[in-house]
Specification:
- The complex is a heterodimer.
- Chain A has a single domain, classed as 3-Layer(aba) Sandwich (Rossmann fold).
- Helices cover about 20% and strands about 25% of the residues of chain A.
- Chain A is built from 5 helices and 11 strands; from the N terminus they run βαββαβαββββαβββα.
- Chain B is α+β, with helices and mostly antiparallel strands.
- Chain B has a single domain, classed as Phosphoribosylformylglycinamidine synthase subunit PurS (Mth169, Chain: A), CATH 3.30.1280.
- In chain B, about 35% of the residues lie in helices and about 30% in strands.
- The chains are: A alpha/beta, B alpha+beta.
- At the A-B interface, strand 5 of A face helix 1 and helix 2 of B.
């Protein structure tokens, strides 16, 4: 399986994502710079790391729309292949219209770097099948704009399609709608999440609760995502 | 050249953490008459084009990039660029 770590200017945790693939599933992985993403469809999965793309100007993730890679990413997602965006990568997926919703500044107005208890709300996805339903994970978060917002109508839709994959299981400090920590698109082939699984793949730093996410992706090879 | 001033506000249904903190700060400073603060932003554009096309053009730019309609509302004013 061939992974791309798609890097927009200002995304700083590309190395962590790259390392997580090497560490967990030991597959081919390449950095793809946003101006060189015309061959994106030669990959099996695209990973969007976290960081501060375009300085978080205007809104976090918004200015990524000015890159040609945004259209290539939209096309990749539409093809049904797997896309994972974490942290600022989740912001980009939302701003690109690939996932619904928006992001606000954290409720307490602080940049928050912490270990968070995260609940697996749906283990029937390509990204979570190696977890158990309701499993409580400990995953790092590091963000200032972790406050996910969706209106009532969108929340209803997310719920009825089982698109809410992760919620904060302990305290919803950032103030996210319905304590949402991660969602998929309707088809289930795109996951955006604020917790950072790539920082939790080694016992010596941050724990290993992120490992099963990458293993799930591996174990979903060849499946069709046509909900 | 035309100047467009876009006022961006958070949608009413959206909780504004900055506004809440600012409300509390003002009240602590003795402005107890302040019941609510909402913090938005102002975007100023200077652009070429005729009066007729600019409105549609600005709406298009707002949808494409400047506004996230899930969390934000906007309105704008069209005027002349003041000569310098």
């Amino acid at each position: 399986m061939k992974f791309a770590v798609l890097v927009f200017p200002g995304l700083t945790c590309d190395l962590d994502m790259y390392h997580a693939i090497e560490e967990t599933v030991k597959q081919d992985v390449e950095y793809v710079w946003h101006t060189e993403a015309d061959q994106l469809d030669s990959f099996d999965a695209v990973l969007l790391p976290t960081g501060t793309s375009y300085g978080n100007y205007l809104r976090p993730g918004a200015l990524a729309k000015s890159s040609p890679a945004c259209k290539q990413l939209q096309a990749f997602a539409e093809s049904g292949k797997l896309v994972l965006g974490v942290g600022n990568g989740f912001h980009i997926l939302v701003e690109a219209g690939i996932l619904p919703g928006g992001f606000l500044r954290n409720q307490n107005l602080k940049f928050r770097s912490a270990l968070e208890i995260v609940r697996v709300e749906n283990n029937n996805t390509a990204f979570t099948k190696d977890y158990t339903q309701g499993q409580m994970l400990t995953l790092p978060v590091a963000n200032e704009f972790g406050n996910y917002y969706a209106d009532d109508q969108t929340v209803e839709k997310l719920k009825s399609n089982n698109q809410i994959v992760f919620t904060y299981g302990d305290e919803n400090i950032d103030g996210s709608t319905e304590a949402i920590a991660g969602i998929t698109n309707e088809r289930g082939n795109v996951l955006g999440m604020m917790p950072l699984p790539e920082r939790a793949v080694e016992a010596i730093i941050g724990g290993t609760d992120g490992t099963a996410l990458f293993q799930s992706i591996m174990n979903s090879r060849g499946e069709q995502h046509v909900n | 050249m035309t100047k467009v001033t876009i006022y961006v506000t958070l949608r009413e249904s959206v909780v504004d953490p900055q506004g809440i903190a600012t409300t509390e700060a003002l009240q602590k400073m003795g402005y107890e008459d302040v019941k609510s603060v909402r913090v938005g932003k102002l975007i100023e554009l200077e652009l070429d084009g005729s009066e007729q096309t600019i409105e549609a053009r600005v709406n298009e730019m707002c949808s494409d990039l400047l506004i996230n309609k899930v969390i934000e509302d906007y309105r704008f004013e069209i005027g002349e660029v003041a000569s310098k």
